[in-house]
């Protein structure tokens, strides 16, 4: 297939810094847009400053470069110090609105959006596994899950409003890789890995390079729609601990909830008592629909094995 002009939001971020060179290598004309400059600019790509929370900036960049496809990766997955709910919403939700409006205004043909399995929410009554037809409930108490639910509702409304704008929406599971640093990997970095008493806490995992290949395929594939992105199967906390050479620390949920409540009040931790829900009720994704995109992703256990090889002490 001929190369296309692609604008990548969040092009200097974790996924973007791999997606951008992958698109360039595929012969595409790539504009990488981010609020910050890339650590290592990709030769052959055009790098521009763009804050998705600023409507006029998004409008200007899309209008100036006239991409055929927009890959929208800009999001706040792991908030840094000083972040707040308003800023996270401005990027995740308002930023997506600005991107969609600019796509409609300037005749963009396709938009590829990185969503998350978190959009289903962390709920005890989630079906196992979750398919793309199951409702998105998010969790109000978790900004990321709540915002991804709102984004997907916005995308569904846009499909009705602008049927000519093709959409590929990727609900991505827990990403692992050699350079991944997120809320989950931090939980696994100490001597002990926390396990809630009586909770299965199944994880579905996907290797970061596989996610990049899925995004690249979504740019050129004739297929549109919503896709769960995760390796087949699940792993529990005991298996994760064994693979990483750690021990498990089993804690009753009420005890952990109380400790987190006290710790947050005293400023000892950024996490509150709601985190027990995040740990106990992991969304298990069925990613069998990925096959039409023509990309095979490693099973969850293989992802854990790869991660253990690079992280085990």
TrEMBL record:
InterPro entries: Epimerase_deHydtase (IPR001509), Lipid_A_modif_metabolic_enz (IPR050177), NAD(P)-bd_dom_sf (IPR036291). Pfam families: Epimerase. It comes from the Bacteria. Residues 6-229 form the NAD-dependent epimerase/dehydratase domain. This is NAD-dependent epimerase/dehydratase domain-containing protein.
């Amino acid at each position: 297939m001929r190369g296309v002009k692609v604008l990548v939001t969040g092009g200097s971020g974790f996924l973007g810094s791999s997606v951008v060179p992958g698109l360039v290598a595929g012969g595409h004309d790539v504009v990488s847009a981010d609020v910050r400059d890339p650590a290592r600019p990709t030769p052959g790509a055009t790098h521009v400053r763009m804050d998705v929370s600023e409507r006029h900036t998004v409008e200007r960049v899309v209008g100036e470069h006239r991409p055929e496809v927009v890959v929208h990766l800009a999001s706040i997955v792991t908030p840094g110090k000083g972040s707040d709910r308003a800023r996270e919403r401005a990027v995740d939700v308002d930023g997506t609105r600005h991107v969609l409006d600019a796509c409609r205004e300037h005749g963009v043909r396709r938009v590829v959006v990185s969503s998350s399995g978190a959009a289903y929410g962390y709920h005890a009554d989630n079906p196992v596994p979750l398919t793309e037809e199951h409702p998105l409930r998010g969790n109000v108490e978790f900004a990321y899950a709540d915002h991804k639910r709102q984004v997907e509702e916005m995308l569904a409304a846009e499909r009705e409003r602008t049927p000519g704008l093709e959409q590929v929406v990727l609900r991505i599971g827990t990403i692992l890789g050699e350079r991944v640093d997120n809320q989950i990997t931090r939980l696994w970095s100490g001597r002990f890995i926390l396990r809630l008493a009586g909770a299965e806490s199944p994880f579905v995992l996907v290797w970061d390079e596989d996610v990049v290949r899925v995004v690249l395929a979504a740019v050129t594939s004739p297929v549109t729609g919503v896709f769960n992105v995760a390796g087949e199967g699940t792993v529990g906390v005991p298996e994760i601990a064994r693979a990483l050479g750690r021990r498990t620390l089993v804690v009753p949920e009420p005890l952990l909830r109380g400790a987190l409540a006290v710790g947050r009040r005293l400023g000892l931790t950024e996490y509150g008592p709601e985190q027990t829900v995040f740990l106990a009720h992991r969304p298990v994704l069925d990613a069998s629909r990925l096959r039409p995109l023509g990309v095979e992703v490693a099973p969850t256990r293989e992802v854990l094995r790869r991660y253990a090889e690079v992280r085990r002490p």
